[in-house]
Specification:
Elements lengths: L5 H6 L2 H7 L6 H10 L3 E4 L15 E6 L2 E6 L5 E7 L4 E2 L1 H6 L5 E4 L3 E6 L1 H10 L1 H27 L2 H18 L7 E3 L4 H8 L3 H13 L3 E4 L2 E4 L2 H8 L15
Antiparallel strand pairs: 1-7, 2-5, 2-7, 3-4, 3-6, 8-10, 9-10
Length: about 250
């Protein structure tokens, strides 16, 4: 049996698709990325991959499956900070800051590549392009956090839900898992409620209203954009903060 070129293997990964959208990665860059990507682990639903307060925590690159990052408040309630999809880094701050400031939990079975701090720093030294690409990905994640704050503070429940689904669709398109027609989505109404600051009952009502208005349908694990452009107009969705269509940096 002939071993497959590791660079060809990494090219097929959501991680490479995501980073290559912004930075031109050479064969040597991809070889370093493949080395970082090699330590693969499996995680079951509901078993935290990263624990808040843990020190010397590894980071992960999500290869398949979905996860959520969240914080538990003193009263026991949960706020989901974001959802992670294939190609995303999990716990990057935990590696750089040495102590994790949040939890990460799989919401589907997950395959992820474990990344140790020493491996990450060595990769950045070997290939500055890869460091630039990861910095871009982290900056985009920060831009999404800003939008999520606007969601919670200023957008109506319907605008909040619609904006979230548009953003999620754009993130999944980047790694080949969605198009403007829609995408497969494993999120329950309870998960959406914890992320959007709504009750599960309110989530159900908002999704029904958006469907009845002919904008978007979320049923049986699939989001369908019934009128994509009208949904963009309804939420004043600005694609620029995701920076998916700009020129390659280097």
């Amino acid at each position: 049996m002939i071993d497959r070129d590791p660079v060809l293997s990494i090219l097929d990964s959501p991680f490479a698709r995501k980073l290559s959208a912004f930075v031109r990665l050479s064969h040597s860059d991809l070889a370093v990325m493949s080395d970082v990507y090699r330590r693969r682990r499996s995680f079951a639903v509901g078993v935290d991959m990263i624990h808040q307060g843990q020190t010397d925590q590894s980071a992960y690159v999500l290869a398949s499956g979905w996860a959520c990052s969240y914080k538990i408040l003193p009263g026991g309630t949960r706020q989901i900070v974001d959802f992670q999809v294939p190609g995303d880094f999990l716990g990057l701050r935990s590696v750089l800051f040495r102590t994790s400031d949040h939890n990460v939990e799989p919401i589907t079975p997950v395959q992820a590549s474990e990344v140790k701090q020493r491996d990450l720093l060595a990769a950045f030294t070997a290939t500055p392009r890869l460091a630039t690409a990861v910095l871009w990905a982290a900056s985009r994640d920060e831009a999404m956090v800003v939008e999520h704050l606007v969601d919670l503070g200023r957008r109506t429940a319907s605008e909040r839900m619609a904006h979230f689904l548009l953003e999620l669709g754009a993130r999944l398109r980047l790694v080949g898992m969605a198009d403007r027609a829609g995408f497969a989505c494993p999120l329950s109404q309870y998960l959406l409620a914890d992320a959007l600051g709504l009750s599960a009952v309110h989530v159900n009502r908002v999704l029904r209203e958006l469907r009845e208005d002919g904008l978007v349908t979320f049923q049986k694990g699939r989001v369908v954009f019934d009128d994509y452009e009208a949904l963009v107009e309804f939420t004043a969705f600005d694609r620029a903060y995701l920076d998916h269509e700009g020129p390659l940096l280097i």
